Amino acid sequence: MWTTAQYSLIQVITSAIVRMNKGHSFALREEKVVVVPDRSARQRDVPSEARPKYLSPPRLFSIIALTVFLGEVSVMFVLASLPQMSTTVEAILDGLMITLIVTPALLLFLFRPLALHIDRREIAEEKLRMMNDMLEDRVSERTAELTAANENLKKEIQDRTSAEQQLSKSSDFINQILVAAPCILAIYDVNTLECSYINDRVADLLGYSPDDVVLKKAAFFEEVFSEETYPIFRNLNASIAAGIEGEIMKCECDLRAANNTLHHFGIGLVAVNTTPADSPKDILLAAIPSERVLSADHPGTNSNDS
Questions:
Q1: Cα separations (Å) of 288 from 18, 205, 266?
Q2: Three-state SS at 262
Q3: Domain ranges, residue 87
Q4: 186 near 200, Cβ under 8 Å?
């Protein structure tokens, strides 16, 4: 039979085990998962309150040693209270009792904290893996968006380059037409009557160089049109300025060459450029020569076919 002292010893051991278990449970709840680069940097970088104390080697050794010591003391007290028995039976009973006492203690104070720590590490690694996967997905999506935007930009550049090439070809073609045209082609401002462009045919038909025409500004038309046909030209120009758009205004006029001879031309006027208010700004003048050549004092004949 057990004595009162033996019962008291067992109660003290049991109470100590319960208190240690509660202390470890609290430590597990307060644990923080901290990743450190290596063992040498752990003590320097990790705060003391964030380190899992139950994983330190001295504490693990103390738990194992204390558990074995208390278990063996308890077994010895129990065996001392039992009747005399053979050495074999006593050894077997000693082993069974120490196993029954030490195994739960090691499970509570050693293996359970390690298992919880491993579980938490696995959960943290899984969260880290999920964050990495999410980050990779975002990087892939962003890369796809940038790739699509880059492809659209390349396509836009190709379209713009193609349009510029087509525009350049069209401009070259128009310039060839202007140079090769058998008539005088001029572009002038509807208000100031100043030429911004006139082709080289004016030199062949009237003897004026394109530079002379540009330098004379509005005085060129007053000089080149005869006295009888200049008012007709001004009336047609006023009609276009009044807003008649897209319609070709035509007349026949006598134009004075640089050598003071009069040449009969068919004149056509059309608006080619407008202001933001849709008012005509630039006029295209086409002067087609006829067969008749007049002297300087011959009266010009003209008509308005518009």
A1: 119, 10, 5
A2: strand
A3: 4-144
A4: no
